Structures are given as C-alpha cells and as structure tokens.
Amino acid sequence: MSKSKRFFSGLLTIVALVAALVVWSMLPWFGVLAIAVAVAAWLAFTRSGAIALAATRIGIAGLPQRWGASSVIVIGIAGVVGVLVAMLAMGEGFKATLSNTGGTDTAIILRGGSQAETNSVITRDQVPLISGLPGIARGADGQPVSSPELSQVVNLQSKADGTDTNVQFRGVGPAAWALRPKLKIVEGRKFGPGLREMVVGRGAQKQFANLDVGKQVKLANQVWTVVGAFESGDSNESELWADVDVLGPAYQRQAFQSVTVKLDGKNGFKQLSAGLAADPRLKLDAMTTHDYYAKQSEGLTKFLSVLGIVIGSIMAVGAIFGALNSMYAAVAGRSREIATMRALGFRGVPVVTAVMLETMLLALVGGIIGALIAWVVFNGHTVSTLGNNFSQVVFQFRVSPQLLWTGLKWALGIGLVGGLFPALRAARLPVTEALRAG
Length: 438
Description:
This protein is α+β, with helices and mostly antiparallel strands and 438 residues long. It is 55% helix and 17% strand. The protein folds into 2 domains: 23-99 and 297-437, no CATH class; 113-282, no CATH class. A hairpin with a 6-residue loop joins β2 and β3.
C-alpha cells in the first residue's frame, strides 16, 4: 500500500472513530443497553461469537500476570471519571440549589432591564403603586402579600481559609416569611422589628465564621446580634436576614432593590405583568421567583460543565495513550499466544473482539472505581461560590445517577479507543512472524 493510501486510510479511521465516539456519548441508557444485548446475543448464539468469547476468557485469565499494565488502564480511567463527575457534580449542585429556590406562585419585581437585585432600584414611592397592582394575592388581613427587600453585600470571614468573603445581607419586610414557606427557624427565634438583630441560614453558618446563635457581628460600624438560624434547602440558606427598616438606614440606603409578591392564582402573573406594563410610573419587570433563580444558575452551570468536559478530555487523552501503550505491550507479550489461537482457527474478528472486550472490561472497572470515589468524596460536600449578586451561594455537590452514568460512558469510550488499534494489530499480525517473535 502506498503512503498516500495509508495516510487516507488512517485519516478515515480517525474520522470514523471520532464520529462513533460522538454518537456513543449521545446515546441514552436504553441505546447502550440495546448494543450490550446485541453483543451478548452475538457472543452467545453465533460460532464466531463463541470463538471470540473463548479468546476473551483466555485473555482475562492472563490478567493477573499483567497486573502492572492493567492497573495503568484502571487507575488512569478512574482518575478521568472521578474528576469529570466531580466537576459536573459541582455544576449540578449549584443548579439544583438555585432551581429549588422560589416557586411559580411568587414573583420578584426589579427595575426594568436588571438581571439581579444588586443593579436594581425601586423607590419608596413605587412600593404602594406595586401593592395596588392586579394579580397580587391578599392575606387574611386583606392587605397585599408583598415584601419590599434590600440586598446588601457584606464581608465575613470564611471558615475554610480565613479570607474575607462576600455574603448577602438581606433586609426583608414582615411578609417575607409567608412568601418563603420552606424557610423554617430551627434554632433561636426571628429578629425583632426595629432591632439590630439577624437570623442566618444554616449554609452560611457552615461556611462563615462568628454566625452562631448568640454571637455578635460588627457590620456598618454597628453591632448586630445573631438571634436565630433557619433552614430552607435552597439559596436562601446562604443569606443573613434582618428588618429592612433597620438595614436600610444602617447602610444609608433610601430605596429598595426588589419587591417579592404572592401571586393570585394561575393568572396572577399575567395580570401583574399587564399591570406593570400599563403604568408608566413603573418601569419595572417581573419574573416568577423560580425563573429568576433558575436563570441565575445558567451561566455558572454551563461554565462548570464546559470546564469539566475540557479537563476530562485532556485527562482522557492521557488515559487513552496509557491504554494504548498497555494494550500494545500486552499484545506484543502475547504474540505467540495470539498466533497459536489464529493457527487453531481463531479469525480476525474474534481476536479483535477479544482484545476489545478485555480493554473495555478494564475500562469499566476503572470507571466504576472513579464513579464510586466521586460519590463517596464529593456527594453532599458543601462549598460556596460567587453568584450573580456578587455574594457567595452555599450549595452541595450533587453526584446524581445521571452523572455516574455519564462517567461510565466516558470510561467505556476511552476503553473503546484504547483497545481498538492494539486489537487491529493483533488481528493483522502474521502467524509466522508472531511465532518467531515469541
């Protein structure tokens, strides 16, 4: 074969391999299951499959004698899967925390065009106008259920490394508790109206220093007493809460930044949006609180997913080369064994299949180990990162079954690439040459 034909043949093989890996990575679980069932049926019910299975058993039986080379494949793939799943679990946990915040029965109102509370301003004279809009539910006292709120970023010391960290200090109105029914005081009590008292989220307590109930914290040159702690299972646990009428003057803030309201039934949001659009004095936008917080997670989640895939891909290249070297060495060391099998009637397809199955078995073991390590070490691990409000959001890594499945697919894909070329070499090795080399 001429050099040009070899070049184009190799190029075609690489293109086909890349296409196969792309298709493989996109396959749902039932697609992978179908392929596995088809391969198992071929191994069990065809003559060439039975020969391939026998050759595979011979190769697997020799793995203990090649434990060093085999461990390179297992450890390399375990590292790839562990890092990939951990990175994706970070993004999944951040997304889940913000997606669980708020609901479709409440809405947040911001200045028109604002993407977050930090760049929103709602003047005090606009608050009564908002309360009078249609679509806002009324409480037992007949008053609209709305909470004008202020979000102030403050510096607290991180427990992890002692550095100053941005934390969201939220001033809320009396209706804030009814608007967030998942939020429960689990220690101490609520802050008193008109007092420099605060309640803190459990997530904030875990990450930041001096937030135990009974402690005093100096903020804005004033001493605030922590009188309670709350849990909510969402991003609110990253915050400190106080009376908005006390927090505003402490930071010389004359306006609010958002107004959270309870929606009146299924059509409440449409009525509220129409009311805002119809009043020229209110150049404000409304979103359901669920959509608002879910949108805040999009950027970082995508970044972490892309970063995880990039880092995982770089590590996967290393793992593939490790698998290639190990399997080439294994094929070279078993050249006489392979030649003997071929002399006995083992054709090219069974030999290729045997080497591929052996490599993918090692890859599967590495993938399972990596996935288990990621689940044990990272699942539920609490961290914090900077959110859209330029303050820390406390969340937990979330190693979901879907991420574990993604890691295993990557492992099998690496095994597929790492075993293919050594398998082809084993099938093409001339019998006489292999016997002399052995």
